[in-house]
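does this look right to u?? pyridoxal-5'-phosphate version
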Amino acid sequence: MNFRDLRRAPLRAVAPYDPGPSLSELKARYGLGQIVKLNWNEDLFGLFPGVQEAIKDELRQAELYPERAYADFRNLVAVRTGADPTMIVPAHGIQSLVFSTIGVFINPGDRVVIPRPTYGLYRQACEAAGAEVVRVPTIGYRFDLDAMLGAASGAKLVIVCDPNNPTGDALTASEWEAFLERLPAGCLAVVDEAYADYLPAEQRPRRVDDVRTGRPLVVLRTFSKLFGLAGLRLGYAIVHPDLVPAFDAVQEPFNVNRLALAAGMACLADPSFIEARRREVVHARDRFAADLGQVGIGSWPSQANFILARPGGNDMEWYEGLLRRGFLVRPGSEFGLDGQLRITVGPPALMDSVLQAVADLRNDLVRETTTAAG
Ligand SMILES: Cc1ncc(COP(=O)(O)O)c(C=O)c1O
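got this back:
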């Protein structure tokens, strides 16, 4: 059997997502007992109160499909976001929603505009669907909104990651409004708000209102970042109610498991805790960026739970050097950002040890360069 030819044509050229070596492989390769993961922007601040109890409770109903839990989740998300429950499409994470959004809108040959650099899954999902992907380079760490709008003419979708991964930049509310206003007819914006929970409420564009008033927009959100549930897989889309049947047609019914739904609802129980946690992460991030600056390493301003640092030189040397010291970060060259490092932010005590490792490594690298030159 020739399986190659049985596959849909676009899949013959698409490479799957490569998560890189596993932690156990890395530990074995570098002889390390422990590695701190600062490479995937997972949460490092701990579970929200009530999550463990909610999961344990929900386990008692494991034999039942999550019909009621699904409806309850939708209702609670609606209350917290100011949307109507009929606008909420639960799913097992933004990753699954990227694929279902493409399943709803994209025919082979349709054009999709994405920024560069940005979250890698958009390109993979679009190419797997046979879309033509146009990548619009950022200007420094900021989106080139004019160029994105120019490329959007004749395109079906424009995907905006806001705040963007890996640059950490966020659009202002007025930049967003102007962008949406100028979006060419027939083109729909998909906004990945995975990191929007780190923005103060008053800075977030009011996209729920845009969706409600029928603007061409789909918003994707997750519980994987601020809420710390990446391992449970939980997210949702906010879409116009007229689009929900199409999402329901491409997604499995009750596609989120009970434990994830229960955990998500527990996270939303106390808005004051959410805000306190947001401030805690933002404080740790800004302090780490300032500390990096003190040791002479610049970084772009970030609105997310990571920092894009610019130590310069060969980022693979930095990656390796930090790994040998027990810290796994993301080399910028993976995104086309040579000489840069994306570092997930954790609690201050952890970031102090990361800073120490960065400073020691910088001294080692300088010493090596000087020795080589001498
Ligand atoms: C921009 C962005 N979107 C989505 C995701 C993944 O979201 P989820 O865990 O909800 O699938 C990530 C994870 O790193 C991300 O950086």
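The longest helix spans residues 348-373. idk if thats expected tbh
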